[in-house]
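Continued from yesterday's entry.
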Amino acid sequence: MSGHQREQNASAALFERELELQAAEQAVQRLCGTATEGRPRLGGLLLYSGEAGLGKTALLTETRRMAVEAGKCTVLFARGSESAQPVPFHVVRQLLQPVLAPMSESDRKELLGGWYEIAGPALGIAPPVGPQDPVGVRDGIDWLVTQLATRQEPVVLMIDDAHWADAESLAWLSFFAVRLQETPLLAVIAYRPVELAENAPGFHELVAGRSSRPVELRALTPEAVNRLVHDSFPEQADAPFCREVWAVTGGNPYETVELVAKANDRGLKPVEESASLLRDLGATARGSGLVSRLERLGTAVTRFAWAAAVLGTEIQPSLAANLAGMGPAQAAECADKLRHARILTGAIDLEFVHPLIATAIYASIPPATRTAMHGQAAWSVTEAGLGPAAASRHLLEVHPDHDSELVEQLRVAAREHLAVGAPDAARRCLERALQEPPPEEERAAVLYELGCAALLTSPSTTVNHLKTALSLPHLTEELRVDATYRLSQAYAHNSQLREAAEVVKEQAERTPPGAGRMRLQAAHYLWQGIQVEEQDSQTRSRRIAELAERIRGRDNTERTLLALRGFDGMIRGEDAVQVVENIERALVDGRLAEGMGWTNTEWGFEVPSIIGITFAYTDRLDHAEELFKDAVRAFEISGWSGGHLAFAHDFLGLVHRRRGELDEAEALLREGLRLGKRLGPGLPIHWDGACLLIDTLLARGRVDEAQAFAEENGFQAPYTPAIVLPDAACLAGRLLLAQGRRKEAITELEAAGRKLDERGRNNTVWAPWALDLAVAVKDEEPERARALADKAVRNAARFGTDTAIGDALRRAALVAEPDEALVKLGQAVVHLRRSPCKYEFAAALVAHGSALLRADRPVEATERLREGLEVAQQCAADGLVATARADLASALCEGAEPAGDAVH
């Protein structure tokens, strides 16, 4: 296409686009034109929506020109491609490789920092090092783009034909778009609304959102077409001719320009006598008419065009020549003819003048020929050194033919896709490998790989594939054990804990004695032990206790069993000293053993999690904090930014909640919930984060906020089948009680207590249902209230930590007679002063001070309340601070010494 022709195309496409251009100009000015005025650069999102040929590309081109003229900025451009849509991160690479390619490797590493090995493979600048978490890869790309926009100059990011962008790039774009208002980056995106990919729900939400309404392009009016025709012909065009041009093209700018250009080529006069020829001439710009025009150029030219259509985008002439079966000279001649016919453009790499042309030519290739050409294209791409992943999009189009070599190529491509954080692309390759089909002895292994590929993104899909793999012969014993364990993980991640426990039990019975069988038995105890509705939990606890007595922690299976024994003992409220002893035996020199780290795939992150949780509930908060900080670091270094990192933030939030650092706990928990929400609703991760945040808000005295959060996040029965922190049903009862909904609280707490009692789960720190129920019934049933509280105190004494005993005494004092309450509160303060849990200590100090005030002992009350106020302020326990200040003021009024600033 000549420069004049491109200018004419752009000019036509911009007819009647004044409002669209004004919006673009304002957006560019906000980004690029504010620095000289001393105002911050403001990013944003421009969406252009319209059918093919309405001028979206021209608007992007004009916006780019505006950006260059308005000020110094970096313009990143990419175009989606129908044929390259299966290639993961294809659009992201188009955007960023022109910026990254000129840099040295050290400069790229400096720019990406810790994200280099995580996002580098997806960007095509670093070799893959192993499977990557797709959320982590997206975060790494986020970091890179943000660095480009903030460290150097503002960025204008443009994507044309976004409806054909690969799913991975669209997923990144959809998540990144929410940050555009706070980043000096303008994203300009053009797409066809009726062709949006169904596998990109995030992008659908983005373009349907209220914050950025798409600009919908319309066809040209007859007046605009009239102007265009007059501009294209040197002599005067008459009205009938212009009306017929509009009627033939429907005002589509692309088709109008093509029709007028062809009329010029044919030497038609722009008069009424020529109007009857326009309809046939217009048909050659699209569909079958275009194909007929191509065929008239000759067999060789047609075959070269077919090859280009199969290759899709960034067409290398040498690859197209190989695919068309011709030498370089003939290929160059064919390319020239296609350029002259306004079908192809480009000098070094070729591309189609318009996507409509590429689509029409690709659809015209006979199916059998097209399939064969895709097979040849895969071979050519591989021979060119572009790798199995690049060839895989062609292999997906080849007809199944029992080709074991193709199966192997697809399996290798799947591994490469996983290594760049594209599990959906890996899934497509492995599903296609199954259709080939693979040799019978490899089928189970392919199903296993397919299940593993979907584990992070679709646990239910993983379940189906791994169940099928386990039903087939030819799995090695080692692979069968691993498939079983991963299947149980997928069940657990899908909130099917009962099925998780059953599958490992069943497979363990079929496994000969040894490490594999013990691994499955340990998994069985794990999934059984974290079920809320576990059946016959007493028997399971007894069996694991007997096992733990006989083992020493010599290998990771034994260490896992010891960790499970410690966690079970903690939940049951057994002697904390023995609980910690078992946990410490599960470690090696106080640290996680090799092969049991946070990112290991043999045991998963569940085992180190229960070790850290047990430490947190047995007053070993320093140990728990060290473990969970290691988890955050390990997940961030590995790029695991999804559920794993969300859990790590939640567990670290648990440590700060137990320590009484409530503001820090709240911040960590909100971040964990934010990370978890990116994976979708209703997952187990949401329950831990939600329960811990509600508990933290209640401790801070923000009851209304806790209730609002509970309603917004679906915190209601039925609760998750997994044990959460704290117990969900107990927490629901406490929330109701805090709101004064006493009868509802009693119903909830009684139901929770029955289930926990049946299962022997008596930890009063994790599930203090009896103490809350005692407060709820004290007015109507004081004797029952005291009996409940006394039982809870005994359970706390059995557990033996200062936190458990002190907090149980503090709560029991709420239902005791005044004199007895004073004694219990005094004892609670003694215990909690030795505890690392400062919020509970502050609550005991304030409660003791208030009780002393009611007993007419204002001097002692003042001392307690002053100390309680100080500790409560350190904890950011706003409700407790208000109570302490009010009671301290009353104590001072009753004759205590002047308080200075103590009540301020």
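--- second protein ---
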Amino acid sequence: MLPELALGKARPSRLRDALPEAWRAPLARLAASWIALIVLCADDWRDMADQWWNSSTFNHILLVPFIIGWLVTIRRHEVARLPVSAWWPGLVLVGGAAFVWVLGSFAGLSVLRQLGAVVMLQGAVAAILGPRVAAGLAFPLAYMLFLVPLGEEIVPQLQLVTARLAVTLLDLTNIPAVLQGVFITTPAGYFEVAEACSGAKFLVAMIALGALVANVCFVSPLRRCLFMATCIVVPIVANGIRAWGTIGIAEWRGIEFASGFDHVLYGWFFFAFVIALVMGLAWRYFDRAPTGHTIDAERIMSSRPLSRLAEATIGAGAAIGLIMLIATAAFGWSTAAGRLAAKLPAQVDLPQVSGWHRVTYSPAYPWEPLHGGADHRLLGSYADTEGRRVEVSYALYASQGEGREAGGFGQGAMPPDSGWAWRSPGPAIAGSIVQRLSAPGPVEREAATFYRSGSVLTGSNIRLKLANIADRLFLRAHPTAVLIVSAEEREGAPADEAIRRFLRAGGPTGPWMDRIGGTR
């Protein structure tokens, strides 16, 4: 036999021999269960991978699987000393994760589905390898949560914080500035703290880095907490400084120069400097010895609570079978609920409203809300005898799901890349969420959004999701409707007043929406 072939044939044997005998079968069972769970949730893993690769906010997650592998590797010798046994309470974690996945499917919330898909893998580790091994691998397992692309949900709040920090610093440096939501006006021009400037990318990555460093380099819980707080506060403050610096440079050299400076210098060097600064300040306080163990197998073995928990054993074959049963039942439940669809009329139209008449749709700046996947979409303009105008957008969905989410990201009054930007919350209108928007010109607009599902009328996306979840849990088919009443700010005709007058003329909003959709 050729030496190369002999060497190639020997490798699997050496790899197998490197594993303790007691670990070989459990690891094979764990691998099989992970493969099955990933296959069942393939759409979610594919969506996550797409975000890791194509969204700059989540590019850092591409490193997370390798970090998890490294964290397991540095614990391998201590973990190998722990006894392995299938553990039935781990199935409760699998079941809870499967239920979260189902809820995410019902609500059309991909982040819940993705969270459930990841936690099912964590639960499988506890169920197949037991509580002591799960305790030994607690941090690598917890770090798996960073596989879920989270962070875009806080972008609007970060935009506001960044804008306020920038204006505060501008005031301190004697640069006149007026803040209107996320827009800043200075003598140099009109600036927007856009979504890309919110600092979410850096904050999300910094939190992931901070969690890793806190575990690997610190022992003291207090020092870990202080370091994590630093990793949250410093990026937010640094982004405010970045915005202030960009505007300050615009005052000095002009907007075009400042824009290029921001992307070239800050994009490549500023946040790298911030990371180096945080790590440099924390370095002297690292209290874990470089050669120290990351876990203590003896302490885990002598733990009375873990010893009591470890008594709840189950057969290895039964554990795998129940994991598959739970996952398959969740998938089947989701599939059955996903086929629910309410009966809708073949055609819908905007109704007549007392004191108002339909007019040609001609906004000062193009405005067309996004209602992806809606079965019916309407958009029109009304005017009253005093010259007030409103735009009305209505969408009707037979069901909610992936690609047809009434309150999904980017849906509604402010579609991405439309030229419209969120400025601030608007005056409260019962049953709705009110937003002030701005577009080049500048053109300002106020939009009141109502969601309707069954008897629920709300402006809260969360409450809408809960109503959709309840319908699917009990396999009820209710349509979902979205109404957006909007008006541009006009001299002598405030947008808020126009919207309120129109809503009063239309009568109770919920029944009005039902009549348009023919659902009541």
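The two ends are 81 Å apart (CA to CA). The CA atoms of residues 53 and 434 lie 34 Å apart. Will compare against the first tomorrow.
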